[in-house]
From TrEMBL:
SUPFAM superfamilies: SIS domain (SSF53697). InterPro entries: SIS_dom (IPR001347), SIS_dom_sf (IPR046348). Transmembrane segments: none annotated. It catalyses: D-fructose 6-phosphate + L-glutamine = D-glucosamine 6-phosphate + L-glutamate. GO terms for biological process: fructose 6-phosphate metabolic process; protein N-linked glycosylation; UDP-N-acetylglucosamine metabolic process. GO terms for molecular function: carbohydrate derivative binding; glutamine-fructose-6-phosphate transaminase (isomerizing) activity. It comes from Gryllotalpicola protaetiae. Pfam families: SIS. Residues 27-155 form the SIS domain. The lineage of its organism: Bacteria, Bacillati, Actinomycetota, Actinomycetes, Micrococcales. Its EC number is 2.6.1.16. This is Glutamine--fructose-6-phosphate aminotransferase [isomerizing].
Length: 333
């Protein structure tokens, strides 16, 4: 029987094409006036904030990313000239709700990115509500919205792109569809103990998103690292019971991913490589199809292990006291 996760994975190319044809000029004008963008989220939304902020910085737009809890509880107040981008698929994530409420109270410029059904009036609806608790389509949809916001910001500031995101997103959608149709992950075996995903630069963020999907969908113990962090002590516990998943080694300008894979193999660790043979030239968009292949790997592992990828938060982990921690007592619309 087809899972909700499988159906959601299959929607992503269509959603990307729809977003490529969308415009968010009003929200982009809010952000264009800011000196710095503070992008926040939780879980997959945090990974979208991290990759989105990296993409914007590469285009000369000052942007930082942090978790919603970090901004709500531990960071100093935002400073004059800041604008906040809240990524929350449901619009109900406790610390995202608090950070948004704080921004509205302080009068800080705000743009939100959510899925259908969230009740935030300022929000951009990035895509359909997730049917599975292993989120997929909302992640790539949020990244696509960030790309289109970048188009809008550059248009307001007078530095429009030579190739706008609206066109590159169509290329990415084609690659995503190819990854949906032929993910090439069925040969990868479930690790006996744990999986360690490693990537360089933006591929390390994709590694983090992939590890989260493996944990959620398949209940596989999975961790993610950038190449430098794995080298500096984190590889020490890896044994023949583990699998190292190397992401796009050719993208690493220093060859460290290949070197780590070779060292792992020599130590008896099972090593697999997941890469696109002809990735898109822009590293930001190159993450899209690779992300889908990791989603497919999570679905494959879930099937192999007899796990339900659609019901993730169960048992004591589903206690209201946990999920409401940090949420403001007063609702702010």
């Amino acid at each position: 029987m087809e899972t909700k996760l499988a159906r959601s994975i299959g929607l992503q190319a269509r959603v990307l094409r729809e977003l490529a044809a969308s415009s968010f000029a009003e929200q982009a004008s809010v952000l264009a006036d800011a000196q710095r963008l503070v992008m926040i989220g939780t879980g997959s939304s945090l990974h979208a904030a991290q990759l989105g902020a990296w993409h914007l910085r590469r285009r000369g737009i000052d942007a930082v990313a942090m978790s919603s809890a970090c901004l709500a509880r531990w960071e100093p107040p935002t400073r004059p000239g800041d604008a906040i981008v809240v990524i929350s698929h449901t619009g109900q994530t406790a610390y995202s709700v608090r950070a948004r409420a704080d921004a509205l109270t302080a009068g800080t410029p705000l743009v939100s990115i959510t899925g259908a059904g969230a009740d935030w009036p300022e929000a951009i609806i990035a895509g359909p509500a997730e049917a599975s608790e292993t989120y997929t389509v909302s992640y790539l949809a949020s990244l696509a919205v960030v790309a289109r916001l970048r188009d809008g910001i550059e248009a307001v500031r007078g530095g429009a792109s030579i190739r706008p995101a609206s066109l590159t997103l169509l290329d990415a959608a084609d690659r995503v569809q190819s990854a949906i149709d032929a993910p090439d992950v069925a040969h990868i075996g479930v690790p006996t103990r744990a999986a360690a995903l490693v990537g360089s630069g933006p591929w390390s963020i994709t590694a983090a998103e992939g590890a989260l999907k493996l944990r959620e969908a398949a209940r596989v113990l999975a961790e993610a690292y950038d190449a430098e962090t794995l080298l500096h002590g984190s590889a020490a516990p890896l044994t023949e019971a583990d699998t190292l998943i190397a992401l796009q080694p050719a993208a690493d300008p220093d060859g460290l991913i290949d070197g780590l894979a070779a060292a792992a193999h020599a130590e008896g660790v099972h090593v697999v490589t997941i890469e696109d043979e002809r990735p898109l030239a822009d590293p930001f968009y190159a993450q899209f199809s690779l992300t889908v292949r990791l989603q497919q790997l999570a679905a494959h592992f879930a099937e192999r292990r007899g796990q339900n990828p659609d019901d993730v938060i169960v048992g004591c982990w589903n206690a209201d006291s946990l999920w409401n921690a940090g949420k403001p007592a007063v609702h702010v619309s």
